[in-house]
Known about the structure:
Helices cover 73% and strands 0% of the residues. The protein is mainly α.
Amino acid sequence: MFMIPLCYGLLFWGMLYVDTGTAAVLELSLTPVTLLGFALLLGDERYDGRRLFAILLGAAGLCILFGPEAYAGWTHADQQGRGLRLLAMTAVASAAVIYAWGSVLARPLLEVYSSDFIAGFTTLFGGAFLILISLVVEPGAAAALKGDWGWPAWVGWLFLVLFGSFIGYTLFIRLLHEIGASRAGAFAFVSPVIAVVLGMITYGEEVSLIDIIGMAIMLFAAFLALRERKQETSSASPPLIPRSARAVAEHERRRAHPAANQP
């Protein structure tokens, strides 16, 4: 529910009324910040000042890269358009928060079930639920099921299914299990750089010095976030939000007997 229907439903609606620069700043900067925040609140990770600095540095790099486009889109909108844009921006930001919350909540399940199973289950049933909701509330959803989209749309859909869901989402779930939520969220600082480079190669888009500075900052931030200290022995800390005694006991049992958690 969190990672597919609630997140992508809000995100795709919001992107109808928000320019790509604003959406990129909101989604890609909030995702790693909220991943770290929820991981700390729920006791999944311990506080690390270096990692927090890396995430904030990456968010600054995103603002440098996409900020001018976001500002231009806001200033050119009329008063009525600004109200709709503000609502759409709230939806995009909420999608990032919900996705991060769902990611941290899903991590205990990865101690019981395989990463591929969790990725497939959430994608299959989350996508099916989102289709049902769209059939109820979205005009033209039923007609879209006929598949009369044209080949460019089909190619885009196939690309997203293969690289976005089958490969990208599955890799994210694996990283979520192996290295934790905040470090897995560092992908948000690498994806925009790849997008800009592909745009430059494929469409001949111009890249300014400001763009290069923003991308360099984001790549350095990703390096800091993913770099692991040798003295780190545990990735967990006492949760800021207390859990029940039963939940704590179950968590300790899984840590003590990891082999017994496999299905």
